[in-house]
Amino acid sequence: MEKIYINTDYIKLDQFLKYVNVVEGGGMAKFVILEGLVKVNGEIELQRGKKLKNGYKVEFNNEKYLILNEEQIDSK
C-alpha cells in the first residue's frame, strides 16, 4: 500500500486520482468514479467530491493508497 501525504485536512476523490497520476484529468476521474471503479475504505464510491481524510484508504486499478497528513511523515 502506497502512502500518500497531503498538507490539508482533506482532498476530494477526483482531485486525489489526478494527484497520484492514475488518471489524465478531471473528465477521466469523473468517468472512473461514476463507473464504480474506485473504492474508498473498501466500499465502491460514486461521489467524485467525496472528502478523503487522514487514514482513508483508496483502491483503484489494483493499486491501494493510504492517505496521511504531512504531520505523520516523522512517524512512518
Secondary structure layout:
Blueprint: E1 2-6, E2 10-12, H1 13-19, H2 26-34, E3 38-40, E4 43-44, E5 51-53, E6 57-60, E7 63-69
Parallel strand pairs: 1-7
Antiparallel strand pairs: 2-5, 3-4, 3-6, 6-7
Helix pairs in contact: 1-2
Protein name: Ribosome-associated protein
Keywords: RNA-binding
Give a brief outline of the structure:
By secondary structure, the protein is α+β, with helices and mostly antiparallel strands. It has helices spanning 13-19, 26-34, and strands at residues 2-6, 10-12, 38-40, 43-44, 51-53, 57-60, 63-69. The chain has one domain (2-75): Structural Genomics Hypothetical 15.5 Kd Protein In mrcA-pckA Intergenic Region, Chain A.
Shape: globular
The rounded distance between the terminal residues' Cα atoms is 13 Å
Strand content: 35-45%
CATH topology, which one?
Answer: Structural Genomics Hypothetical 15.5 Kd Protein In mrcA-pckA Intergenic Region, Chain A
User: Low-confidence runs (pLDDT<50, min 5 residues)?
Assistant: none
Strand line-up in the sheet with most strands? 1-7-6-3-4
Question: For the record, what CATH class applies?
Answer: Alpha Beta
How many strands?
A: 7
Main β-sheet: number of strands, strand sense, barrel status?
A: 5 strands, mixed
Pfam family, one: S4_2
Keywords: RNA-binding
Protein name: Ribosome-associated protein
InterPro entries: S4_RNA-bd_sf
